[in-house]
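Follow-up to my post from last week.
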Amino acid sequence: MEDWKTLFTEQEIQVRIKQLAKQISEDYKDKDLLIIGVLKGACIFFSDLIRLIDTPLAIDFFIVSSYSGQESSGNVEIHFDLREDVKGKDILIVDDIIDTGLTLKRLKECLKEKSPRSIKACALLDKKTKRQVEVEADYIGFEVPDLFAVGYGMDYKNKFRNLPFIAEFKSNK
Ligand code: IMP
Ligand code: MG
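User reply:
Got it. Predicted complex:
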């Protein structure tokens, strides 16, 4: 049996993204911004966020996986790496949700080797209580407790990404 409960409505998400985009636009006014989306989960958040940022920017993507079902495998695999030159750029990593922190830590380490001018991160959701490594995002949409979220890009077994809202997902299998 599967069950879900709405956590954030479409409208609540859009209001928060507008605020994040405003802050990011101010912070990166005179910078050389390269926004890197972490696929697949960040696809919807990334698209909505960049369209509300009004400072010039370039984009690129990582395709990463670490989850199987509702648990992190602890093993972060990079399936698709960047195409853009990172050297001297101001990097903003955009992910859907931070959980153990393993993905963000690994991506930050990879990027550091390529000599960017700065690296920051933005996540729509943050499960702060689940961290296994010390890493934080600089811009966070909403903090959430230890639950499994789906919708607005986030999946359970690659499903539910197309829900326009964010819900807590429960599977009793
Ligand atoms: P972390 O490496 O454990 O921080 O988690 C990284 C990735 O796992 C996130 O970017 C998501 O793509 C996925 N993930 C973590 N928690 C959830 C969740 O509650 N729902 C859907 N995906 C999740
Ligand atoms: Mg992700």
